[in-house]
Design a protein that fits this description.
The complex is a heterodimer of chains A (278) and B (405). The radius of gyration of chain A is 19 Å and the shape is globular. Chain A has helices at residues 61-68, 91-96, 114-119, 132-135, 137-157, 173-185, 203-219, 231-237, 255-260, 262-268; strands spanning 21-32, 35-46, 50-54, 76-81, 84-85, 99-101, 191-195, 223-227, 241-245, 248-253. In chain A, a hairpin with a 2-residue loop joins β1 and β2. By secondary structure, chain A is α/β, with parallel strands linked by helices. Chain B folds into 2 domains: 1-51, no CATH class; 68-312, no CATH class. In chain B, 69% of the residues lie in helices and 0% in strands. Chain B is built from 15 helices and no strands. In chain B, α3 (54-83) packs parallel to α9 (221-244), α3 (54-83) packs across α13 and α14 (324-355) packs across α15 (363-381). The chains are: A alpha/beta (278), B mainly alpha (405).
């Protein structure tokens, strides 16, 4: 299933312009008290791309994720998902339109098992209505079996199968990151927002996460938007790369261009790196 | 075995048979387990009725009734706190709304001399089950009213709101005479099926069946009520177990563990919390109704925060929050400890008098201290309770290979 050959992601590079934007953010702003965390930020995420979102600490990347996924409401600006305005929708409504996100610090349901964490996710579960397990146990059981099968497949795919009956809270940091990714897969998302998938993950696990992202992008057509501080990872995996600074988009383009953009070097790398070291 | 002992043991069989059935291994064939439960339950009931002196027996039966009522309410709290993490410290509000609602629904308006002593907003004279149902609905509506605005906020706001609403409800029942006789007790709440123990008998029962109950005297009514109370515990337990072990329970526990992740898994967190809060409140209201029909006469003072909120919290903490069996066990154990301390304080009287002459009169306050010590011991040594939450709660997925924890 896993194709380790897909290290290079240049295959996704579609010429700019003309292609459809799955996610479009226009003039988004958010103030926290006197602090403008996101400032008139606009950008698009191309359907089928793995878009990177980088920027120095405090650039507003995580706030932007929170805005897009509905956890906080923007003060100004609109967010469109596949042409539909999703500005101001609650997270569960955004989810139903096919947008999933992970959290920078994994937020697993600690005293549910890994399997239960996944089985939670699919929408429209009959058994989530109080009376159905009592009145329609057969239908609920059939649906639960199907969901369980799917959860086991996802666990297999992300090599977490051996942990399925462990409490999610006992997983290692890297395993929790995988679990976050696994949860998004249970939803058949169209776009996944990953908040620092590599932070605190050991290199071999990271290689696996990266490989799975590429595979999901290629084989299932899932669009990714990911925040990451690991620059080599972003440069190898993402195209295009969007650079944020002080709450707004500073630059956007293929990794090679972004890497040599003097504004980016100034803002992101602090200016002391004359040229990006390969 | 005398006729009285026989009929009493038959009445006790129902709760005991359920316990025996639960105790038998789940792997047994259905019929064998059922038969084993019935036979075992009746054997225990017969032995208890024959061996325990009737005075002590009457005490034990009324103990078990109050224990059962508390068990129902603790099950309600378990839905809110144990599974969903909603911090309701105003249980008394839902408890008392349930009790007063059924009282108003099932009594008739006072007439004649009584009208001078009793005021009540209405008296419908409806049957017991209607009273219980309306009590549950009333408590549920109160939960929607309180939970709607507060459950969207941070969790501490629910605590503040519930503690406030409990006081408001209590003060309303204390001061509004027109509503439910204000500071005076509301009397004459009917005892369901009490025709079974009266000479006239129940006219709707066939004569041979009624003849079976003939040996019972009116003072044996508690045996009948124990069966009713136990039925409600069993029913509530079975319904909740089914619901909790299904996706519904999984969503509740997910919200308890990590709200934002549940929201990002497409769950409408505010709605789920409101649902769990309301389901718990309905159960508390039903518990209140059971209390009213047992006491026959109720007033606001029955629902002070100690009896109607604090003890129930201790019950759930001791039994095991997040475990329905734990909630029931905790209710009986803590009610035992609480009533036991009354005897203990009585025994201490001479010793207290020796220390200071005013101390014996203040003895009852010692009970509060004892229960507080029990709470501290639980938190120190068994923070998850006697039987805490199980690892594998979800069951409907059908995977037989799932280990049984």
């Amino acid at each position: 299933m896993a194709s380790t050959a897909s290290r290079r992601t240049q295959a996704h590079v579609v010429p700019q312009g003309g292609e459809s934007a799955l996610l479009r953010v226009q003039g988004l702003s958010k103030d926290f008290g006197g602090l403008r965390a996101v400032n008139a930020c606009s950008f698009s995420v191309r359907t089928g791309s793995i878009t990177g979102l980088i920027g120095p600490n405090g650039a507003g990347k995580s706030t932007l994720f929170a805005l897009v996924s509905g956890f906080i409401r923007p003060d100004e600006g609109r967010i469109h998902l596949d042409g539909h305005d999703i500005t101001g929708l609650a997270p569960h409504q955004v989810f139903r339109r096919g947008l999933c996100r992970t959290f920078q610090i994994p937020r697993e349901h600690a005293s549910l098992t890994v399997l239960e964490n996944l089985m939670l996710v699919p929408p429209d579960q009959l058994g989530e209505r109080f009376w159905n397990p009592l009145l329609r146990p057969g239908a609920v059981r059939r649906q639960e079996r199907a969901i369980r099968e799917k959860a086991l497949e996802v666990l297999d795919f992300l090599t977490l199968a051996h942990l399925r009956d462990e409490y999610a809270g006992t997983l290692s940091g890297g395993q929790k990151k995988l679990l976050e990714l696994a949860r998004t897969l249970m939803a058949d998302p169209r776009i996944v927002l990953l908040d620092e998938p590599a932070a605190g993950v050991n290199p071999s696990l990271m290689a696996r996460i990266r490989e799975k992202i590429v595979q999901l992008n290629r084989e299932s057509g899932i669009t990714f938007l990911l925040i990451e501080h690991d620059i080599p990872l972003v440069m190898g995996l993402c195209d295009p790369v969007i650079v944020m600074n002080q709450g707004t988009k500073l630059a956007e383009g293929p990794p090679s261009l972004v890497r040599s953009d003097p504004r980016v070097l100034e803002a992101y790398l602090g200016g002391q790196h004359g040229a990006a070291d390969d | 075995m005398s006729d009285v002992a026989l009929i009493k043991s038959l009445l006790l069989t129902l709760p005991l048979a359920f316990l025996t059935w639960r105790a038998l291994p789940a792997g047994w064939p259905v019929l064998a387990r059922l038969a084993g439960g019935l036979v075992g339950g009746w054997a225990i009931a017969a032995a208890v009725t024959l061996l325990v002196p009737s005075g002590l027996m009457a005490y034990l039966v009324s103990f078990a009734i109050v224990g059962s009522i508390y068990a129902v309410i603790a099950l309600g709290l378990n839905v809110q706190w144990g599974y969903t993490g909603l911090f309701n410290i105003g249980i008394a509000a839902f408890f008392s709304i349930g009790a007063f609602t059924t009282a108003l629904v099932t009594t008739t308006m006072p007439t004649g001399v009584m009208a001078g002593f009793t005021q009540q907003a209405f008296g419908l004279g409806a049957p017991f089950l209607v009273g219980v149902l309306v009590a549950g609905v009333a408590a549920g509506l109160l939960a929607l009213l309180v939970g709607g605005p507060t459950l969207r906020l941070r969790e501490d706001y629910l605590a503040i709101a519930t503690i406030g609403i409990a006081e408001v409800v209590r003060l309303i029942f204390q001061n509004e005479r027109w509503l439910a006789n204000g500071p005076q007790p509301l009397r004459g709440i009917p005892q369901p099926l009490n025709c079974l123990v009266r000479d006239a008998g129940c006219e709707w029962l066939p004569a041979p069946v009624m003849a079976l109950f003939a040996p019972l005297a009116p003072r044996d009514y508690t045996f009948v009520y124990l069966v009713i109370a136990a039925l409600f515990v069993i029913l509530t337990f079975l319904v909740l177990e089914r619901a909790i072990r299904s996706p519904w329970g999984r969503v509740l526990r997910a919200v308890r563990e990590e709200e934002d992740a549940a929201a990002m898994s497409g769950k409408d967190v505010a709605r789920i919390k409101l649902q769990a809060f309301t389901v718990g409140a309905v159960i508390m209201g039903i518990g209140g109704a059971l209390y009213a029909h047992y006491m026959v006469s109720i007033d606001y003072s029955h629902f002070d925060p100690l009896y109607a909120t604090f003890l129930i919290w201790v019950m759930l903490m001791l039994g095991g929050s997040g475990n329905n069996r734990g909630a029931i066990l905790g209710a009986f154990v803590i009610w035992g400890v609480w009533t036991g301390t009354a005897f203990f304080v009585d025994m201490l009287r001479p010793a207290l008098a020796a220390i200071s002459p005013d101390l014996p009169a203040r003895g009852p306050y010692l009970r509060l201290m004892f229960i507080a010590i029990v709470l501290l011991l639980i938190l120190l040594f068994r923070p998850k309770g006697l039987i805490g939450e199980e690892k594998f709660v979800s069951r409907l997925s059908g995977g037989r290979e799932q280990p049984q924890a």
